[in-house]
Amino acid sequence: MQTTAETPVTPSAPRHVQVLIFDDVEVLDFAGPFEVFGVTGLRTGPAPFRVETVGLSKAPIRARNGLEVRPSTSIDEATRCDVLVLPGGFGTRREMHNATLLHWIRRQARAAEAVLSVCTGALLLARAGLLDGLDATTHHVAFDELAQASPSTNILRGARYVDNGHIVTSAGISAGIDASLHVVAKLLGHAVAVETAEYMEYDWHTQHNERKQTSTSSR
After folding, report:
1. Within its chain, how far is the Cα of 82 from the centroid?
2. Is the pLDDT of residue 78 over 90?
3. Which residues are catalytic?
4. Which of 104, 119, 172, 177 lies at a C-alpha separation of 20 to 30 Å from 160?
5. What residue numbers bound the domain in which 92 lies?
6. Does residue 216 lie within any of the structural domains?
7. Per-residue pLDDT tens digits for 117-127
8. How many domains does the chain have?
9. 196 located within any domain
10. pLDDT tens digit string along 125-162?
């Protein structure tokens, strides 16, 4: 369900946000959205989101440049979520061929209110078949890879993020913060997202196409 600034929604229980992490994940790809959802409502309370990280197992992962992170839970034990975040990084080139993970992504996405990919996390959505026939974006160095993974996807080159309603895809790395704030606005209203950005002292790019867009599709 989408909301506007005029119709903010405050659920009786916090929405459950799951952020996937894996070896060679880009740090800001997962840490940026984790921070956005984690600090939303911090000054006004109660917290509207409950955020956790999900790994392929509960073993620590080594993110980009060797940062070690221990997941909150694993894909085998994770319950359904309201918001699913799929970050990118070099590890996506390996995990996009992980059939078990792709099955989990499909299952979680079906039940989620919103799905967000950051950077090359779009490759995971593409390989899961969730971007077929949709507009999408990713890190600019991965446009060709996304086209190969999902030939029917219309790639918006230069878009900061792309909103398909249920699925939001963002450009590279820092764009995931903008897209996360956009998801906050969709779920809780624009004013809440603005307050969150101000708390983070972040200059939020509220327009999807901050840069010039050109589309690429095999359709």
Report:
1. 12
2. yes
3. 119
4. 104
5. 15-210
6. no
7. 999 999 999 99
8. 1
9. yes
10. 999 999 999 999 999 999 999 999 999 999 999 999 99
